[in-house]
Amino acid sequence: MSLSEKASYLKGLMDGMKLNTETDENRLLAKIVELLHDMAVSVDDLEDNAIAVSDELDEIEDNLDAIDEYLMDDDDDYDEDDYEDYDDDDDYDFDDDSIYEVTCPKCGEVEQLSEEELLKGSIACPKCGEPLEFEFDEDDEE
Length: 142
Hints:
This protein has 4 helices and 4 strands; from the N terminus they run ααββαββα. A two-stranded antiparallel sheet has the order 1-2. Strands 3-4 form a two-stranded antiparallel ribbon. The two termini are 78 Å apart. It is mainly alpha-helical.
């Protein structure tokens, strides 16, 4: 029997006894039974909400498990040989979005330049001193 059913039973007992609610004791008893009924209804509502939340959490957990399984399946496709050419020592400036590599035609030195350095138009090769010149079309400068 639920709490609201028990509270309704108590109210029925009190009504069946035909208590005179004009007396102080019986008025107090009637208010206590009314309070018990209201509290029982509130507790029943809370229990229903808790069940609904639990069901939603179970569904969210199932969805997260499916996502996790999907992501973990992608890890199975990882092949270490695909990344053997990666060098952890590569110097890359993550703050600068535009890095360009320029190869000196004389000595073969590869130099990494920012967009600012390229826009200057020329630099000297740091290894052999050969002047390296850069030409841009109007479209390139935009």
